[in-house]
Amino acid sequence: AKHQTAEKRAIITKRAEKHALNRRNKERALNSARRSARLNGNFYVDPEAKLLFAIRLRGVNHVPPKQRKILELLRLLQMNNGVFLRVNYAMLKMLERVVPYVAFGYPNYKSVRELIYKRGFGKTNRNQRISL
Question: pLDDT tens digit string along 50-79?
Answer without folding.
Answer: 999 999 999 889 999 999 999 999 999 999
